[in-house]
Amino acid sequence: MTAPTLAQVLPTADVIHDRETLDAAIARMADVIAPDYANDAQAPLFVTIMHGGMPFAAQLAFALGERGLDLEFDYLHATRYRGNTSGSGLAWLHRPATPMRGRRVLLADDILDEGHTLLAVKRWCEDQGAADVRVAVLAVKLHDRRVDGIEADYVGVEVPDRYVFGYGMDYREQGRNLPAIYALKD
Ligand SMILES: O=P(O)(O)OC[C@H]1O[C@H](OP(=O)(O)OP(=O)(O)O)[C@H](O)[C@@H]1O
Ligand code: HPA
């Protein structure tokens, strides 16, 4: 049986956080993050985790720039959902090119769910010799299935234990550019 399309699930999905709420949450995150890096001699390496992290990372980057914090950009792509609504093994599709030795690294992603992705990514950055690796996520999902050893240093909003999409997150590779976070009907 083929899965329903975005157009079929959207009418019955719930809006969990609207755009105004997310704008305010990202501004609050920037208020906290900017002072944490303000006295560093070198800009943090700001690593966007593609694809889902892109809209959030862009908005956070502007908010940090507004607050006087310069960033050096890079990106990586690690995926374990691959258009499905449950995860499997992590596949690295792109690794950052910028040397990390001695650098402070700030990872930006859309969601911390079970944590496999960010745990692996953070460990990889540490193995590259990063001096400090912090995690900024737009959303944290509330459940007790998180793997040990990973938490977010900076969080925008909490989401319920349902499949969520929008604001970077996909429903079967659709809906990433919806400007709100939705949850599939249970
Ligand atoms: O905490 P976890 O359970 O590991 O899930 C979180 C990860 O899953 C999503 O990526 P996905 O694998 O869907 O790749 P994508 O961003 O390219 O869609 C999301 O962007 C996070 O990186
Ligand atoms: O609930 C989710 N939605 C979209 N992508 C995800 N990746 C992990 N969990 C989710």
TrEMBL record:
Pfam families: Pribosyltran (PF00156). This is Hypoxanthine-guanine phosphoribosyltransferase. InterPro entries: HGPRT, PRTase-like, PRTase_dom. Keywords: Glycosyltransferase, Transferase. Coiled coil: none annotated. Signal peptide: none annotated. It catalyses: GMP + diphosphate = guanine + 5-phospho-alpha-D-ribose 1-diphosphate; IMP + diphosphate = hypoxanthine + 5-phospho-alpha-D-ribose 1-diphosphate. Residues 18-171 form the Phosphoribosyltransferase domain. NCBIfam families: PRK09162.1. One of its GO terms (molecular function) is glycosyltransferase activity. Its EC number is 2.4.2.8.
